[in-house]
What does this fold into?
Amino acid sequence: MKPFTPDDLLACYKRGVFPMAESRDDDGFFIVDPEWRCIFPLDTFHVPKRLARTLRQDRFTFTIDRDFEAVIDGCAAPGKDREDTWINPDIRALYLELHKRGIAHSVEARIDKQLAGGLYGVAIGGAFFGESMFSWATDASKAALVHLAARLRGGGFKLLDAQFITPHLEQFGAQTLPRRIFQALLGVALDTQADFRSLPDATSGAELERILAMPR
It folds into this structure.
């Protein structure tokens, strides 16, 4: 059987499907095409009040793509709310290669310059496909998500895919769409030119809020 390559992974994203493994120790993976898809509408992204206060205090600083490997390993590790994850060595290797190509990106939330949490995903055209997030400190992954949403808003992105809905994501305004609607939005987003680097890494928490509150 022909090996699954990073180019095959990109083709999956452009079709609206993505890979998962049964566990981080599993051999191989499978392709998922959910009937219902979770997205964050970037025009109505919601920052919870308590988190907004934390962001305005600038407890967190942010970097982009500085520690991609550490972020994906943080996402792959078990945590207090999850005994296992779906990021196995095969999936890890594919995303590391996409990162080398400048297609997979990480957002790192830091406290006193030390990595405290973050997330990673894939940017194609005006679509960002969020893959996973982790926290080593309270609110770190949530802060990284707000930074990502503001970065995408500022860069002209049309779609932030979150794959599956959870109560954790609903507090930010995440919603589910049937596959056919998602595919239509994806088509528009893929035809859009967007800039993931449009926002300075050092953007303050108050400025992140302002960007997300701007009409467009």
About this structure: The chain has a mean pLDDT of 92. The helical segments are 6-15, 49-56, 68-76, 89-100, 140-155, 167-170, 179-190, 205-213. The two ends are 47 Å apart (CA to CA).
